[in-house]
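Fold this sequence, please.
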Amino acid sequence: MPGVLRRRPPPAYRTAGRGALRVTIAASAGFYVLLYGLDWSVGATYALFGAIAMAGLSHLPGSGRQRAGLLLGAVPVCWALITLGTYLSVRTWSAVVGMLVVGFTLAFMAVGGPRFAGAATGLHLMYILPSFPPYAPGSLGERLAGATFGIALLIVAELTLLPEPGALPYRERAARAAEGAARCAERLRSAPYTLPEDLRDTARALGTELRSSQVPEAERPAGAGLRQRALAHTGLATRTLLGRLAALPPPPAAAVPPGGTAAEADGTDADPLRAVADVAEETVVGLRGGTPDVRAHARLRRVRRALTSAEDALPAAQRRTAALLEIADAALAMSTAADLAVRGRAAAAPAPGRFWYARMRAPQLWWRRLSGHVGGRSVFFQNAVRISLALAAARLIAGVDTLPHGFWVLLATLTLTRTTVRETRTTVRRALTGTLVGAFVAATLLALVGTDIEVYAVALPPLMLVTFTLGPVKGVGWSQALFTVVVALVFAQLAPATWQLAEFRLLDVVTGSAIGAVFGLLAWPRGAHDELRRSVAVLLRVAAEIVVSTTARTAAGGRRVPVLSAPGSRSLQHALVMAESAYAQYQSEPTGRARPPGGQDWQAALITGHHTLWGADRLLVPPEPVEVPPLDSRPAEAVVRAGDRVAARMLLLSARTDPTGDTAETPLPLSGPPAPALLLDAPPGTPHAYYATMAWLASLTTDLERLAGETGAASTPADGRPAPPRTHAGPAW
């Protein structure tokens, strides 16, 4: 027995308990001070539900200090929502129109990243609260004061009560990965010119730490601003650099003099790997707040030009030179992106192309993010339409039928509507069961206690603590049961209440959940299931076009100049955004539904898109003007033939994946030599562009083989799936 008593609760309960303590103290303190101290019943209601909305119903990411900062920024938004809701509640039609517009706007905020998505549900409630009669603009001051007081207490609680340590910032993660890249580059400068297994494992682990699935929500660079985009680009370029360093082939044995270095084997005056290591160390200094020496970046650019003009007849040396060029490109991209992430618009103007966002102002970048998701193919747009229509319908029904405590109807609609009809049906069933149990307990309590307010006042804080501890862990049934009793205790203190209050609560939850179920059935009922297949099919079709175009231009040669992006890149970027957002929601939905044919590895599809985009830019968009010679007939034929085969696989996979078109029933053609095998047939003196193109096609072939496999990562979501977008953050009450 002593051992049992000393056992610590599971981590989920400890995390939920810390949050429950903060919201309980803030909500109950604000409620009691305003109700019993100042006799402000309206202000007390807004103080209580303001704290519950922004902490109990919302999922604000980060440490206590980060959440406090988010809450502080949300206060003016809450003022605007309460004011707007107060004045629009004068008529049912104006309240419905306001609910439609505000509901869509707040739900669509999820495109801005986890911080915006996490606060959406709480902000919805701050608008729902004043949207019901009585129409009392004279009480607006008390409403604003109450909500502000409750949120202020919550901010203090976040800063002082059981503070949580902050997570490792993404900039520091990128700095550590850049340090690892510098060590790898130094190690590759000497024999045996390959990375030992321990250093290879370290590089792999450092790259994994930069994946968004491994980064806490508050630290993910998911925003639309310049610094956030550049920081995400820094992580991507650093991961690419680590991977290319690990795959660098050793120099030909005949090219290395006894006791020589890799630089002598590469035939350049400067040491490419030393220049890469210096740039990586310079990046580390900048990411950690120091003043980097920009000479390393300039020196690597000169080394890259030397590599481009270097000539070697040995195919093995050509392959190594092509690999070194890719490493140099990745290091330069990492350095430029890190400078933009740290200094913003004060950074040196980079060349156009992959850093298209560098000279755009914040409104332009946000407009690009928002406009890219306006349309029926975006899951963020679908979720916003679904929830706004459901809330507007709920407000209309509550207003026409004059349901008592009508905001409970909207609260149930908001928190019980899910992205698939299957999940909504399961959630509603459990919620109704929990509400029925909670209503029975609340009715019994109200009947036994009667008007003895002191009992309700004493019982409310411990019950809230239990509710916000067990609810997030136990699920929607427990949440609804416990919260039903909580609201009964709250309203019994605001006005005399009978057991019928529990009856009203049950009626409102049934109404709200029915509305959510109807709109879950009518508006994209399969959630991201079909949308993911459709977006991946579009992604593969666009990628196939770019592969054919890029290989044809490589074979023809010609002048290459720095431009914004390779032809077709804008379309592929948009297709990637749509596919990634659909995949994120797909991973958040239940796994019991039918899988698409072949069990596709959806992550392999996304990787294929990224590899297509990066490869086309690398081959067709140089950092400075350069003249690329055309390939001879044999290498040109090999490049075009390999590109056509990769594009054909993409098109067949697209046809098999697309739910709106015909499905390819026959197996995908996997016969024929893989793209890397053609490298062995290249004659001496073949230009660098040939080797770079064939290496790119080889990586795409590997991605497509994974995607075409019969057992993919879609059935095993443990493979580093990204965090889902939070359309209805927090537990369902």
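Residues 1-5, 590-599, 670-680, 710-733 have pLDDT under 50 and may be disordered. The CA atoms of residues 340 and 393 lie 46 Å apart.
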